[in-house]
Amino acid sequence: MKYDGKQFLFTADAGVPALTEAADYASGAGIDLKQLNFIQVPHHGSKHNVGPAILNRILGPKRPTQNFDKTAYISAAKDGEPNHPAKKVVNAFKRRGANVFVTQGQSKVHRSSDSPPVRIGKMPAPCRFMIRLKSDQ
């Protein structure tokens, strides 16, 4: 999804085959997924839903230093059961330039830096794009 000059990818519970199809589609449509600003990490950060090859296609190759130019969110239960998110998944996203945030039983809000402050229960006008991710209970 593109909005206000930024690119977002929501993956839900997609696994490697579905992510590969999405990457193939994006490539055919002239969309460079490596230019993503925001990605929702599939299936609570499970190590079974991503791998190095698909992450290289979507985010780009590993970087020699951590230089974050993307944001990744992982919706995971408070206690992270069963092993969500996997530490190797978090590290794989970080090594490819994604600053990773995990809900771990909390609500998290991602909004652009030019958006006005948000008050609970109130939306500023005009409304800017905002994503609210809530952890599984």
Question: Can you describe this structure?
Answer:
It is globular and about 40 Å long. With 137 residues, the chain is an alpha/beta fold. Mean pLDDT is 81; it is low at 123-130. It has one domain. The two termini are 27 Å apart. 21% of the residues lie in helices and 22% in strands. The protein has 3 helices and 7 strands. The protein has helices at residues 16-28, 52-58, 87-95; strands at residues 2-3, 6-10, 38-40, 70-74, 98-102, 107-111, 130-134.
**What is the general shape?**
globular
Radius of gyration from CA coordinates: 15 Å
- Count of individual domains: 1
* Secondary-structure content class: alpha/beta
Write the layout of secondary structure elements.
Elements: E1 2-3, E2 6-10, H1 16-28, E3 38-40, H2 52-58, E4 70-74, H3 87-95, E5 98-102, E6 107-111, E7 130-134
Notable characteristics:
about 140 residues; five-stranded mixed β-sheet; two-stranded antiparallel sheet; 3 helices; about 20% strand
In short:
This protein has 137 residues and is α/β, with parallel strands linked by helices.
